[in-house]
Amino acid sequence: MARKDNAADAANPGRLKQIxxxxxxxxxxxxxxxxxxxxxxxxxxxxxxxxxxxIGHPIYLGILGLLLAFLATAIVFxxxxxxxxxxxxxxxxxxxAAVLDxxxxxxxxxxxxxxxxSQDVVHRAVGKAGIVLVAEGNPNRVKSLLAAEKRKMNRxxxxxxxxxxxxxxxxxxxxxxxxxxxxxxxxxxxxGPQVTATNDRLRALGDLMSNMPLPKGPMPKGMRMPKGGGxxxx
Length: 234
What we know:
Blueprint: H1 2-29, H2 33-55, H3 58-89, H4 95-100, E1 108-115, E2 121-127, E3 130-136, H5 139-156, E4 162-167, H6 179-184, H7 192-205
Parallel strand pairs: 3-4
Antiparallel strand pairs: 1-2, 2-3
């Protein structure tokens, strides 16, 4: 019992430090975040307290209002922090891979399964919707990368649907901030065992970056591919 309490006490400072760090990062991109959070908390608490006085139960409604004010503030903070994070990542090579890593449970992400010398890149995610190929880079160049990767998928896992998405703000493209939502809206056609079997077959295939160290999050701008583009040696 004492060990559990000590573990909880040790975890709390870590959570608070993470929240503080997230707030600082968000404030760099969203200067009004403090005022917005304060306004949300005060308004929610004030409304419930006023209702409490009207019905003769200010204490009960005040406590409820305080709890709901914390909840509303947390929700608003989470959304604005996410928006700020997307704003900072947008336009950086590898930003889509960082989003794919946080799509949710049931998805397996493999970054940079195909890449060319211009740093246009295709990432792969496998879930109950099938295989999703996510490309980022020049729209005209990534189309050939996507086409080659889809042909490869059709040879290896012909019975699994393959979707392709291009990250960007142009026509027919998916904005970075909507990538996760778009993937979660895809129809689920595979069972859990089918997803596992698909991942096993693709793992045996390997990927472009299997023998290259790849840092998490956006890839460094100075990173260059070896000659030969996205072709694997035979």
